[in-house]
């Protein structure tokens, strides 16, 4: 790029002395495309004229050996002899033959519960928009079987686009994580090494490898791909993350940290007094404030979660184990070429509990911690179907697009080499589910690299964005009626407008968010406080959002209060019952119920003599004192026959 860089800010720093050791130096932006910087040769050995690209055949043929040699560097810490290889293709085929998987694309399954999928086959105008989801919700996967991506607002590269093109646009020297299907462990390749692997004929590949985490939004490829319209319309990152200094100023003015603001104001007043209240000094303080906001915005732009554009390149036979996308995010998924088979499990409370227990025992690739002792060889579909759940199978072909809602547990199998464009997005239509998955990840101790980046910070900005809508509506009404109506009247109108704009499930989701934010605001854990937006009074934001949503939910007339009232009514009726009625009721229950008798086996190895045996014929236990010649077990039986349920078991001697 021929641009100048400050040597002291680089990593590693470059001084005039070390600069002279480079033959060619590449800045961090150019390194992915042109390779690392080259040092001057320290030998006089003659170099060959033909350039040779080094191919690591250890990586290509035996990733497990690489994992063993680099276990201290890549954070996996698994030796090759501890790696368990699994034939997932055979596992899936066996269960398919047994009829374990329901067809997710048909109108009815063998269980009569119907399909898990909404299939859109008609062409024409795109109907899957934020407006459509507002009315119909987004709780099931949606498949666009039409091979016309422009109908859903999806922009893709033209024809003749290949794996090699991806490497050229993203950078042949850029490193990416590669998953070994048989072991579900990861290693690192450069994209050029990855293309070399994929160019090997399928029969000659000794390992089946998969790339699913290549984020490309800040590369030339990012300009050739645009997310579907629905994902762009509802994505919290694009809608709520501050983009300008004006956004930050509004946040600080309305929800700024009073302690920091007071401290800043006192310093400004001190400066004014020292300088005699000079107007030039006021101008300087404003410039400093603008500089601070600019610096803060720069930091936020570096932290912005970039998860909306991923490129997935999979070799035939690749398998991604069952998982829930980080933070409960929804997913868009377009098959550019190749084929994919999805296995879906609905995120019911029961299924999520089974999944979390399975994922934390160490057998899955979801990044959870825990031991490997229980269910060491378990396959999640076996556990789900054994508990009465369903696993749905959905085939995705070239040119088709799939939308996966928040929380859905899924695995993916690749029958042939495939190139996929996809992405994740957080949205308002599944806030409760997203927060459920966030808490589940925390409980499962999912690693940082497997979590949604800066999720909690994003949720604070989401809360602020909702409060900002309320403030904007209040301002518009104040201007419209010229201040004639009262504040309370305007507030009631705002609540009516908010309830009219958002469906019930969205408002209940925001209420759940307010409750979660209130808990975060009281937290003293560094992992939580580090994600508090700088200078934001998080307690104030949490309280205001909670108060607003409480009023909105009350306006909707949700039955929470009515249910509580019915409970109180039952308590009052119980108080009115007389002692005789209670006694009669208890006697009826005692006649209906029989006690559960737990047999007691004598621990003595020798048989008792005849004069000390229980008088029940055939019983070999000792008779007990004060038990009328019976052993303890038969004495209890006699008592139960005589007295019903009113037995004082404590009175029976040991």
Describe this structure as you would to a colleague.
The protein is of the alpha+beta class and 654 residues long. It has 4 domains: 1-44, no CATH class; 103-230 and 308-450, Sandwich (Jelly Rolls); 455-561, no CATH class; 594-651, no CATH class. The protein has 25 helices and 14 strands. The chain has helices at residues 16-19, 31-34, 57-61, 63-69, 88-97, 130-136, 163-170, 191-198, 220-224, 229-234, 236-240, 245-255, 258-274, 279-303, 349-359, 380-386, 431-444, 455-480, 487-501, 504-522, 526-529, 538-556, 560-576, 579-592, 632-643; strands at 22-24, 38-39, 101-103, 118-120, 142-144, 175-180, 185-190, 209-215, 310-314, 319-323, 330-345, 391-396, 401-404, 409-425. The strands form 2 sheets. Strands 3, 4, 5, 6, 7, 8, 9, 10, 11, 12, 13 and 14 form a 12-stranded mixed beta sheet that branches. Strands 1-2 form a two-stranded antiparallel sheet. Strand 6 and strand 7 (185-190) form a beta hairpin. Helix 7 packs antiparallel against helix 8. The longest helix has 26 residues, at 455-480. The radius of gyration is 33 Å and the shape is globular. The relative contact order is 0.09. Residues 272-442 form the JmjC domain. One of its GO terms (molecular function) is dioxygenase activity. Residues 259-293, 570-594 are annotated as: Disordered. Residues 573-586 have a biased composition (Basic residues). This is JmjC domain-containing protein.
CATH fold naming of the largest domain: Jelly Rolls
Instruction: Sketch the major β-sheet.
Output: 12 strands, mixed
CATH architecture verdict of the largest domain: Sandwich
- CATH class group of the largest domain: Mainly Beta
Rg estimate, integer Å = 33 Å
* Tally of contiguous helical segments: 25
**Measured distance between first and last alpha carbons:** 90 Å
- Tell me the total number of β-strands: 14
Q: What is the helix fraction of residues, given as a range? A: 40-55%
Instruction: Note the overall shape.
Output: globular
- As for the number of domains, it is 4
Strand content: 5-15%
The chain-level mean pLDDT equals 78
| CATH H-level homologous superfamily name of the largest domain | Cupin
Summing up helix and strand content along with how strands pair, one would put the structural category as alpha+beta
């Amino acid at each position: 790029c021929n641009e100048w860089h400050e040597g002291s800010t680089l990593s590693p720093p470059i001084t005039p002395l070390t600069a002279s050791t480079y033959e060619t130096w590449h800045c961090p932006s150019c390194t992915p495309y042109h390779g690392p910087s080259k040092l001057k040769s320290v030998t006089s050995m003659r170099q060959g004229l033909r350039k040779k690209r080094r191919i690591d055949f250890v990586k290509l043929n035996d990733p497990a050996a690489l994992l063993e040699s680099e276990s201290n560097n890549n954070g996996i810490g698994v030796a090759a002899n501890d790696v368990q290889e699994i034939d997932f293709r055979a596992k899936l085929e066996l269960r398919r033959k047994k009829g374990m998987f329901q067809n997710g694309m048909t109108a009815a399954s063998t269980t009569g519960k119907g399909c898990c999928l909404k299939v859109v086959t008609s062409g024409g105008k795109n109907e899957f928009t934020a407006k459509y989801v507002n009315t119909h919700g987004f709780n099931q996967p949606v498949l666009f079987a039409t091979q016309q991506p422009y109908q859903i607002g999806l922009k893709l590269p033209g024809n003749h686009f290949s794996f090699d093109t991806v490497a050229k646009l993203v950078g042949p020297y850029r490193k990416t994580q590669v998953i070994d299907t048989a072991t579900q462990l990861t290693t690192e390749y450069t994209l050029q090494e990855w293309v070399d692997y994929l160019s090997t004929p399928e029969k000659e590949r000794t390992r089946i490898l998969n790339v699913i985490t290549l984020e490309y939004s800040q590369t030339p490829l990012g300009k050739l791909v645009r997310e579907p319209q629905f994902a762009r319309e509802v994505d919290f990152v694009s809608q709520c993350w501050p983009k300008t200094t004006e956004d930050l100023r509004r946040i600080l003015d309305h929800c700024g940290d009073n302690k920091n603001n007071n401290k800043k104001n006192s310093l400004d007043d001190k400066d004014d007094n020292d300088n005699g209240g000079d107007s030039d000094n006021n101008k300087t303080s404003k410039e400093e404030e603008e500089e601070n906001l600019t610096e803060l915005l720069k930091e936020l732009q570096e932290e912005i979660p970039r998860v909306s554009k991923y490129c997935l390149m999979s070799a035939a036979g690749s398998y991604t184990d069952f998982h829930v996308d980080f933070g409960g995010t929804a997913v868009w998924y377009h098959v550019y070429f190749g084929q994919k088979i999805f296995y879906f499990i609905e995120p019911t409370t029961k299924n999520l509990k089974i999944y979390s227990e399975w994922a934390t025992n160490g057998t899955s690739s979801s990044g959870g911690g825990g031991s490997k002792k229980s269910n060491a060889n378990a396959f999640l579909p076996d556990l789900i179907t054994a508990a009465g759940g369903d696993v749905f199978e959905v085939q995705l072909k070239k040119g088709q697009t799939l939308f996966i809602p928040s929380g859905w547990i899924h695995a993916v199998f690749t029958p042939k080499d495939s190139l996929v464009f996809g992405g994740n997005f957080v949205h308002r239509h599944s806030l409760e589910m997203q927060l459920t998955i966030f808490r589940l990840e925390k409980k499962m101790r999912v690693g940082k690299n497997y979590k949604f980046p800066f999720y909690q910070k994003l949720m604070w900005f989401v809360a602020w964005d909702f409060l900002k809508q309320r403030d904007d509506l209040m301002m518009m009404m104040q201007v419209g009626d010229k201040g004639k109506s009262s504040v309370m009247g305007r507030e009631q109108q705002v609540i009516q407008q908010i309830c009219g704009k958002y469906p019930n499930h969205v408002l209940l989701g925001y209420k759940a968010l307010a409750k979660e934010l209130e808990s975060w605001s009281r937290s003293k854990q560094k992992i939580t406080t580090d994600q508090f937006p700088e200078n934001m009074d998080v307690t104030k934001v949490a309280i205001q959002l909670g108060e607003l949503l409480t009023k909105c939910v009350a306006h909707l007339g949700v039955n929470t209060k009515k249910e509580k009232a019915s409970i109180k009514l039952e308590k009052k009726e119980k108080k009115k019952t007389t002692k005789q009625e209670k006694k009669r009721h208890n006697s009826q229950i005692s006649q209906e119920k029989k006690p559960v008798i737990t047999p007691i086996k004598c621990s003595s190895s020798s048989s008792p003599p005849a004069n000390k045996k229980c008088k029940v014929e055939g019983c070999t236990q000792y008779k007990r004192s004060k038990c009328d010649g019976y052993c303890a077990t038969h004495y209890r039986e006699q008592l139960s026959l005589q007295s019903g349920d009113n037995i004082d078991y404590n009175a029976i001697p040991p």
